């Protein structure tokens, strides 16, 4: 027997019980962190708008739900995956985080990364002066080395720009990767 997803209840069949909505919200929040908008949208599939809003408000009131914390954690994960600033902002917007809050969180993350790069440069000189170029360089090292070795830097540049890196960051990472040449090691 094949597994089938249970159909969503019709709009007039959704539960109006805020206690059930709160219980479902807690279940989802124990599985992973959500933004307030994400949780509200998920709850609205099964509960009335009022019950969903009450459950979200209660989760925020108890501190179980915090958009800033969610955005900071998500931005750190995306940065660790070598995503560009634009890609991080776009993902946070898709998850329902306010644009101004997302901008603040990403700027704070990049400021922290900039400070780490400057501190690391004191011990070992590093050619990557900004976090976005460093992230693009790591991506080139991880995923696009063969294209560079095949003499196709244009493809690497296009791929980095499709991933949301600025032209300046993509060009900088490409220049650093090409400067490393054939010695096998890209600068850190």
Description:
Mean pLDDT is 87; it is low at 182-188. The N and C termini lie far apart (53 Å). The chain is an all-alpha fold and 188 residues long. It is built from 10 helices and no strands. It has helices spanning 18-31, 36-44, 49-62, 67-80, 85-94, 99-123, 131-143, 145-149, 153-162, 167-180. It is elongated and about 65 Å long.
The succession of helices and strands, N to C, reads HHHHHHHHHH
Low-confidence stretches: 182-188
Q: Please report the number of helical segments.
A: 10
**Overall mean pLDDT score?**
87
Instruction: State the helical fraction.
Output: 55-70%
The backbone outline, from C-alpha atoms, is elongated
| End-to-end C-alpha gap | 53 Å
- Rg, alpha carbons: 22 Å
Describe the largest sheet: none
Task: Work out the count of structural domains.
Answer: 3
> What structural class do the secondary elements suggest?
mainly alpha
Strand content: under 5%
Number of strand segments: 0
């Amino acid at each position: 027997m094949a597994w089938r997803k249970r159909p969503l209840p019709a709009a007039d069949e959704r539960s109006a019980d805020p206690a059930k909505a709160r219980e479902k919200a807690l279940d989802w929040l124990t599985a992973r962190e959500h933004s307030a908008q994400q949780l509200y949208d998920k709850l609205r599939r099964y509960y009335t708008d009022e019950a969903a809003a009450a459950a979200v408000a209660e989760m925020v009131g108890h501190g179980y739900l915090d958009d800033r914390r969610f955005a900071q954690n998500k931005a750190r994960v995306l940065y660790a995956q070598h995503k560009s600033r634009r890609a991080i902002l776009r993902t946070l917007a898709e998850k329902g985080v306010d644009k101004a809050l997302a901008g603040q969180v990403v700027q704070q993350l990049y400021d922290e990364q900039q400070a780490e790069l400057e501190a690391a440069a004191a011990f070992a000189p590093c050619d990557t002066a900004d976090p976005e170029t460093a992230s693009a360089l790591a991506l080139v090292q991880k995923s696009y080395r063969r294209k560079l070795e095949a003499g196709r830097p244009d493809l690497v540049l296009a791929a980095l720009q499709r991933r949301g890196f600025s032209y300046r960051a993509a060009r900088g990472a490409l220049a650093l990767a090409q400067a490393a040449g054939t010695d096998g090691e890209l600068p850190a």
